[in-house]
Write a structure and sequence with these properties.
heterodimer, A: alpha/beta, FAD/NAD(P)-binding domain, five-stranded parallel sheet, B: about 120 residues, three-stranded antiparallel sheet, 2 helices, about 35% strand, binds iron/sulfur cluster
Chain lengths: ~425, ~120
């Protein structure tokens, strides 16, 4: 067993982890370690070849791979230690972790602080009750993306897409360009799951129909997929038999949501928020286990990579402070959400008399034209913002300066 | 005279912008900012998009190299660009930003590598 001792260990070398590691270095941390299970850094970004990344951070429309490369290049200029092909097996509340790879066998790492940056994974066919056998040809949008963009392999000739999450929309365009016929996108909900600009530039640009209030009721084929049956849903979200339609296809692409990958966090005793499915965080992105921080899509599923990087930097500043000064628990004030707010991160604020800047990320429950956001601390308004329009797929992020003793409230109401 | 409504894709606000042909030129309404106005004008006269794809890379740690154009290209040239790009083979190592195809189809934009690929 190889023993290591580091100031900060970052689990996951995607956009959140890389931003966190770099910020930890800037904060003066001596030994920073990044542990990545893949053979390369960048997380999911190397397979995101489309543009639109980094508008906020760099003011440019970069490809995903390009955005990752900027951070990878920065890391290469530092003495951040990177372990690739290394799987973290366990973290504990004493801030120790166990990992393994084929060179070192088991690694035992004692950490001043740990930053969780494992990202999220896609919901699969097994999680959405697809009726029928389990033929080949049913796969997540991310798998299709990997086949086409990394392996250079086309996994089918004619596709149906279930779910209108962003990766599904991006892959509708990509498959069309690569010569896979995309019959249509079927979405269970009455509103699309992805960003409006992706509906426009990925579906409308290529005349791909979007069927809202529809689902796949059956997959056909035993060994390989031969067709799917789709149907419209009634007001109770039950399929209407008369609307059933069978579409021959050899590929069913699932874009039905993302789930933060928190198995390791839970083992370490980290409490999860049932709404975000990520750890309950304070304003420094520290979990309820002192010294364990979280950022990126493992903390809450973000829609923009720029926010993912930003959250990594917040967590790293918190972790560096923890390593330097330790942490005294002065109690917490829960962040209460009201009106159209579905959930917000951070979920709680450390009690204290000093005013501090807090970066909030929130999602609304339903779309709304003309909305006003208010942030109140101990009853006093500390931030307000007006929006022409808010929609669930588009996260709202803002900074507020506050100190709180009793209450913090976030609300989005009609203007 | 022609009139068209577009959803702006420049930022997440997704404004609905209407462009109308008038004797005095194009009239644009519904945008919130200048970038949206410029987008709608382009969309009405000559729509443009970034082009991204992959090309074969030999002797590298991965088999496909992602590529992106240095600026937007006319939307109707997408299919032609894809065909052109399929012919391209490059050898590792490649650096992010390397020019893979100069002046793609004479459109005045370069096709660039969008990541590093080290040689094995
Ligand atoms: S017009 Fe301006 S504000 Fe509206 S979507 Fe376009 S870029 Fe955004």
């Amino acid at each position: 067993m190889r023993e290591l001792c580091v100031d900060i260990a970052v689990i996951g070398g995607g956009p959140a982890g890389l931003a966190a590691a770099l910020e930890a270095k800037r904060q003066g941390m001596e030994k920073v370690l990044v542990i990545e299970r893949d053979f390369q850094l960048g997380g999911i970004l190397p397979q995101c070849i489309h543009d639109g990344f980094g508008l906020h951070r760099f003011g440019e429309r970069l490809a995903g791979a390009e955005y990752a490369q900027r951070f990878i290049d920065e890391v290469a200029k530092t003495d951040i230690q990177v372990c690739l092909n290394t799987m973290v097996l366990e973290i504990n509340g004493q801030k120790e972790l166990y990992a393994c790879n084929s060179q070192d066998g088991i690694l035992h790492v004692k950490c001043g602080a740990i930053i969780l940056a494992m990202g999220c994974r896609e919901r699969t066919g097994a999680q959405i009750l697809l009726f029928g056998y389990r033929p080949s040809g049913v796969m997540t949008a991310g798998s299709v993306q990997r086949y086409i963009n990394i392996e250079g392999y086309l996994p089918g000739k004619k596709a149906v897409i279930l779910g209108s999450g962003d990766i599904g929309l991006i892959m509708a365009r990509r498959m069309t360009l690569e010569g896979i016929e995309v019959e249509g996108v079927y979405e269970v909900m009455k509103e699309p799951g992805g960003l409006t600009r992706n509906i426009v530039q990925c579906l409308e640009d290529y005349n791909i129909p979007l069927h809202l209030n529809h689902t796949v009721v059956r997959v056909h084929g035993k060994e390989a997929l031969t067709a799917v049956t789709v149907a419209e849903l009634d007001a109770e979200r039950k399929p209407i038999p008369e609307t059933e339609r069978t579409i021959p296809c050899d590929l069913l692409v699932l874009a039905v949501g993302l789930i933060p990958e928190n198995e390791l966090s839970v083992k370490a005793g980290v409490e999860l928020d049932p709404k975000t499915r990520g750890p309950v965080l304070d304003e420094e992105f520290m979990t309820e286990v002192p010294g364990i921080f979280a950022c990126g899509n493992v903390s809450v599923v973000f829609d923009l990579v720029d926010y993912v990087s930003l959250s990594g930097e917040i967590a790293a500043r918190g972790a560096a402070k923890y390593v330097r000064e330790g942490y005294a628990d002065t109690g917490h004030v829960p962040v209460e959400v009201k009106g159209n707010v579905n959930f917000a991160v951070p979920q709680r604020i450390r009690k204290g008399s000093d005013a501090k800047k807090v970066q909030f990320f929130l999602r609304v429950k339903h779309s709304q034209k003309g909305a006003r956001l208010n942030c109140l601390a101990d009853g006093a308004e500390v931030k307000k913002r007006a929006f022409n329009r808010v929609v669930p797929p588009e996260m709202v992020s803002f900074e507020a300066e506050l100190h709180a003793a009793d209450s913090v409230v976030l609300e989005v109401e009609e203007e | 005279m022609a009139e068209k409504t577009f959803t702006c894709i420049v930022c997440p606000m997704s404004c609905s912008i209407t462009v109308k042909e008038t004797p005095e030129g194009l009239s644009v309404t519904g945008h919130t900012c200048k970038r949206g106005e410029a987008f709608a004008r382009d969309e009405f006269t000559a729509p443009k998009r970034m082009f991204t794809s992959t090309v074969v890379v030999e002797g590298g740690v991965v088999r496909r190299l992602p590529v992106i154009t240095s600026a937007e290209i006319p939307k109707e040239k997408m299919a032609e660009c894809l065909k052109e790009v399929y012919q391209v083979r490059v050898k590792a190592p490649v650096k992010c930003g390397d020019v893979v195809v100069p002046d793609l189809l004479g459109l005045g934009v370069n096709l660039l590598a969008s990541r590093d690929v080290d040689a094995v």
